[in-house]
Fold:
Amino acid sequence: MAVGVRHCTIRFMELESSSLMKCSLSSSPLYRKQSVHFSNSSSQRYNQCCSLSMNGCQGDSRSPIGTVETRTLPAVSSPALAMERLNSAISDMIKSDPPPYNSGIIRLEVPIEEQIEALEWLHAQNHLLLPRCFFSGRRVASEMCINGASSHSKLVSVAGVGSAVFFTHLRPFSLDDWRAIRRFLSKKCPLIRAYGAIRFDATADIASEWSAFGSFYFMVPQVEFDELEGSSIIAATIAWDNAASWTYQRAIDALQATIWQLSSVLITVQKKNPHSHILDSTHVPGKASWDNAVKRALQIISRNDPVLIKVVLARSTRVVTAADIDPLTWLACLKVEGENAYQFCLQPPHSPAFIGNTPEQLFHRDRLSICSEALAGTRARGGSELLDLKIEQDLLSSAKDHNEFAIVRECIRRRLEAVCSSVLIEPKKAIRKFTRVQHLYARLRGRLQAEDDEFKILSSVHPTPAVCGYPTEDARAFISETEMFDRGMYAGPVGWFGGEESEFAVGIRSALVEKGLGALIYAGTGIVEGSDSSLEWEELELKTSQFTKLMKLEAPLLTRGQSRIINQNQKVVALASNYALPLK
Structure:
């Protein structure tokens, strides 16, 4: 073992393995709605995936892990030196006797005395090195103690490749799945985290473009780069469980295979518009089908005894471009304007990348403390301070927006009260400003009675009325019957579980992107009494503009009647002055 290694270890008594929880992905999903085939030869293009690891769902979720450790090596001045030190530590582990446990997870980390963008590190790695993930919290993220040290550092963003252990299944995310993830986590090792996402509607059929994600997909990265304020960390993690037929030796060999493929030479990610030309764009649904869906929703909403008060309808836009779309370049461009928003990327093997830039927090748990927020009633920002204030006052005084906002806030409050001993709303109604938009906003805080109630929080607060509607089950049923595509992880929970903390955002403002094969861009809008289908369609166009502004329209290739994405600059001005922009 390298000299100077600091240990942060928690050990449990090993229990006899019980019958395995079956998690086979061999069954084929049914495709009822329209699917998009990104590739006909994915097995050839993904031949450089990281070595396979174990599906943590296949272990006994009630059997504690034998050891959970973080080993911190002495700090170095550069990523290249960090990789050398990490390789040396892994070699020492190979030469040493294996730990005397049938299961465990060990994180080796090397601090770097320089703040380096995690996205740049990820961009430097081969884009076929999968799975990979990226998660960037908001600037207002809370401080956390790194490895029990007395000083506090803020974790800015995390990038990872390979999976020490992953968790996925075709059936809906369950309490047993949550327990399967939690057994690999510990309060004593706060940076061992599982990053991933859950489908918006786990009961809906899975379309081919989302098949690799399953009903949920989480991963503890094999190799991880943590960007902190003023410094960085590079880490390698191994996990094993003999009961799941994944031994310590197999885990070490898989980690070494991934390490050999990594680059320590950083590449600056382009953060300006790549302006790739759009060759074709196709909306699902098209305008006529959209009009019919909105009309049907309004008929139900306007009844004397309505089943629906609000429903959120969405659209998928398939974009084909002349040049490759690099998902990480797109994400870097979104990050520039994404202050106080979450940026994320999740890409399992044999899959496109799910990326997004979302302002909406689903919940954040810090031990027993829980917080969530309500966002609704969106407006564009003004071009001047005076106009911005005028738009803000219009939003605050709008009865329609207040009603929609109150539905979201009170629904979240009731769901938190069902699990928490107390709930505080402060502020009850305020304005939250972002680079391009401003929202009505409320922050809700509560206290869990037990940390195991985290699963109850996740299952109760999702989906919020902001992305589904109200009442929830009636809105979800209408969406399932009406929408002609699979939302997948769009509008679902996206984030991470940790031993001490967990945080999830809502996967809106998002797209499914494949380098060389185009993108699926998702947008949604809330339908309430008084909605107009044509104005809502314009809203969808505006929502997708954060992605389409990164591209140029190839006008000669567009013909009459063809679905198209058009320049939004003039529409933004008009919509900002007279229309409420939905959050989705």
